[in-house]
């Protein structure tokens, strides 16, 4: 009889406890819904704890975000979002605006510029935070005027530096670097638009040598016709000019048609110094063997 009463009491207590837990869970859900989103920055990475974090708190879904108990793992849809997993529990993180998560190794927390990182399967990004000349806070961005082919902006924390490509190159929005016009493939910035030059028609044997032609408006520069068809503008170093007879660069004063090219830029003394640089000083110690110690006898 006593044993039966004890079992009855245990069942009642268990039922009461279960009801209490449901009530507590409902109260916790109500409190979470009323809390504002919380954001904080730590070590240059924005940590976000909001409704998006809450929807993954069910233990049954942890395996999707944490393939391993510890590490950093990319989000399946958003390229600049990732998960910091610790003992199977995760924190949602966002890279700084303009950067994306580099998932090369779960052991490394690394946000990078998007060039060279495949985001085709997770193309979504956070909302941009633009500023003057910077569509996003971080990155390399083309000039607003599409006709300006060689100028771009380097943005850090929403502040920009304007950079100009070396002569003959174009800023590539695909790679974030300056490149040849035919490789950059920027609309309105091809070789035909940039250069007042067209590669002459040549036979296959000449085309294979990538022939060179002078820039008729600038002695220091010349054109290389890749495969005899694609012009790329290149140049000689200061004080030199392109010699059409040899197809090479030489000192301008040795080329009759370019002998006075630097007349308004450099003095004869400066040209002499470029053509005849002083010998490099010998290393200290008279060129003796600098290896420490000696071979044992």
Automatic annotation (TrEMBL):
SUPFAM superfamilies: Invertebrate chitin-binding proteins (SSF57625). One of its GO terms (cellular component) is extracellular region. Residues 51-63 have a biased composition (Acidic residues). Gene3D superfamilies: Chitin binding domain. Keywords: Chitin-binding, Disulfide bond, Glycoprotein, Repeat, Signal. Residues 1-18 form the signal peptide. One of its GO terms (molecular function) is chitin binding. Residues 63-121, 131-191, 196-260 form the Chitin-binding type-2 domain. Residues 23-70, 269-297 are annotated as: Disordered. Residues 39-50 have a biased composition (Basic and acidic residues). The keyword Ligase does not apply. This is Chitin-binding type-2 domain-containing protein. It comes from Vespula vulgaris (Yellow jacket).
């Amino acid at each position: 009889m006593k044993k039966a009463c004890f079992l009855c009491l245990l069942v009642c207590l268990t039922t009461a406890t279960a009801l209490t837990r449901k009530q507590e869970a409902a109260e916790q859900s109500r409190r979470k819904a009323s809390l504002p989103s919380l954001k904080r920055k730590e070590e240059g990475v924005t940590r976000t704890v909001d409704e998006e974090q809450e929807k993954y708190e069910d233990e049954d879904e942890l395996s999707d975000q944490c393939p391993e108990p510890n590490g950093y793992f990319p989000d399946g849809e958003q390229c600049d979002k990732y998960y910091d997993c610790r003992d199977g529990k995760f924190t949602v993180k966002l890279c700084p605006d303009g950067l994306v998560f580099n998932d090369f190794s779960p052991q490394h927390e690394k946000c990078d510029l998007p060039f060279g990182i495949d985001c085709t399967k997770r193309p979504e990004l956070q909302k941009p935070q633009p500023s003057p000349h910077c569509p996003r806070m971080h990155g390399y961005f083309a000039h607003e005027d599409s006709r300006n082919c060689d100028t771009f902006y380097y943005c850090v924390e929403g502040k920009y530096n304007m950079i100009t490509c070396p002569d003959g190159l174009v800023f590539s929005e695909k790679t974030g670097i300056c490149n040849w016009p035919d490789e950059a493939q920027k609309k309105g910035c091809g070789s035909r638009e940039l250069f007042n030059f067209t590669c002459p028609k040549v036979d296959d044997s000449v085309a294979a040598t990538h022939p060179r032609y002078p820039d008729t408006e600038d002695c220091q520069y010349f054109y290389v016709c890749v495969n005899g068809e694609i012009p790329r503008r290149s140049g000689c170093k200061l004080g030199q000019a392109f010699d059409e007879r040899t197809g090479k660069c030489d000192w301008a004063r040795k080329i009759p048609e370019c002998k006075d090219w630097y007349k308004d830029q450099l003095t004869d003394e400066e040209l002499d110094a470029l053509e005849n640089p002083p010998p490099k000083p010998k290393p200290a110690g008279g060129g003796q063997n600098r290896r420490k110690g000696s071979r044992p006898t």
